[in-house]
């Protein structure tokens, strides 16, 4: 009914791009923040301005990663090395955390202005998993996970939440490391092999493979099915509703 192996009784869902239509919001915020910074830096150094690609750069360097990791990884790809700073750095600080704060401020503004929509197929799938007695958790690198779940009206569908705040408290490494997914499985009393991971990010399916989970389901929202498989997805669907249709 749910398209899962018989021994899998726990479902671990990524948030942005799997449950909610917020991946585009994040990509737009990353582009706005990085473009402003890269333009400022190019003007200062008399170098050409090369904008952030909201598809290629987003998928490769920031999607699914903790905010600071995304900043660090993209800047490294451009040969830029900034001081780390601290998590409470203001948005005008030219540090890894300062740029992360700028991006987060933009996301919060966009969410407030535009609201949050959940994918209907994903909500139907989570409800079917609940009705079948499967345990469910959200696993997200976002520190805004609870606010997004609440805004989308789906917070009550999950037993546990492992997000950016929990990861910081428990010193969990972000995706593509499997730490947050392993923590979610533990919180639900499951072994990794008994749990399914649902991810749209390349870093996320890598985390699922690294954690040796029972099945890693890639959700292809942007036409990267082959890449999702190469990075660790066992199965790729365009929407979780497809798994319900395999009855």
Q: How would you summarize this macromolecular structure in one to three sentences?
A:
47% of the residues lie in helices and 10% in strands. By secondary structure, it is α/β, with parallel strands linked by helices.
The overall pLDDT, averaged over residues, is 94
List low-confidence stretches: none
Q: With helices defined by DSSP (H or I, 4 residues minimum), what is the helix count?
A: 11
Overall spatial form = elongated
N-end to C-end Cα span? 5 Å
Structural class: alpha/beta
State which percent range the strand residues make up.
Answer: 5-15%
SSE order in H/E notation?
Answer: EHHHHHEHEHHEHEHEH
The CATH homologous superfamily of the largest domain corresponds to HAD superfamily/HAD-like
Radius of gyration: 18 Å
CATH architecture title of the largest domain: 3-Layer(aba) Sandwich
At the fold tier of CATH, the topology name of the largest domain is Rossmann fold
User: Spatial order of the strands in the main sheet?
Assistant: 3-2-1-4-5-6
Topology (SSEs and partners):
Elements: E1 10-13, H1 23-45, H2 56-62, H3 67-77, H4 96-114, H5 120-131, E2 135-139, H6 145-152, E3 160-162, H7 164-170, H8 179-187, E4 195-199, H9 202-210, E5 215-219, H10 225-231, E6 235-237, H11 241-244
Parallel strand pairs: 1-2, 1-4, 2-3, 4-5, 5-6
Helix pairs in contact: 1-4, 2-3, 3-4, 9-10
């Amino acid at each position: 009914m749910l398209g899962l192996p018989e021994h899998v009784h726990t479902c671990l869902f990524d948030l942005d791009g799997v449950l909610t239509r917020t991946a585009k919001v994040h990509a737009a915020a990353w582009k706005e923040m990085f473009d402003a910074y890269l333009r400022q830096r190019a003007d200062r150094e008399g170098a050409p301005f090369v904008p952030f690609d909201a598809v290629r750069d987003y998928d490769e360097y920031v999607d699914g990663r903790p905010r600071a990791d995304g900043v660090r990884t993209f800047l490294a790809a451009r040969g830029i090395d900034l001081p780390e700073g601290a998590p409470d750095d203001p948005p005008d600080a030219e540090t890894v955390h300062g740029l992360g704060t700028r991006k987060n401020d933009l996301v919060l503004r966009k969410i407030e202005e535009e609201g949050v929509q959940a994918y209907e197929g994903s909500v139907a799938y989570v409800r079917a998993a609940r009705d079948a007695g499967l345990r469910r958790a959200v696993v997200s690198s976002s520190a805004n996970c609870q606010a997004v779940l609440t805004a989308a009206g789906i917070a009550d569908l999950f037993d546990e939440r492992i997000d950016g705040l929990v990861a910081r408290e428990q010193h969990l490494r972000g995706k593509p490391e499997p730490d947050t997914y392993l923590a979610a499985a533990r919180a639900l009393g499951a072994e990794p092999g008994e749990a399914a991971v649902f991810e749209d990010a390349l870093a996320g399916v890598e985390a699922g493979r690294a954690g040796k989970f029972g099945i890693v389901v890639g959700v292809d929202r942007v036409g990267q099915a082959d890449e999702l498989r190469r990075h660790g997805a066992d199965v790729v669907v365009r929407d979780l509703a497809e798994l319900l249709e395999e009855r």
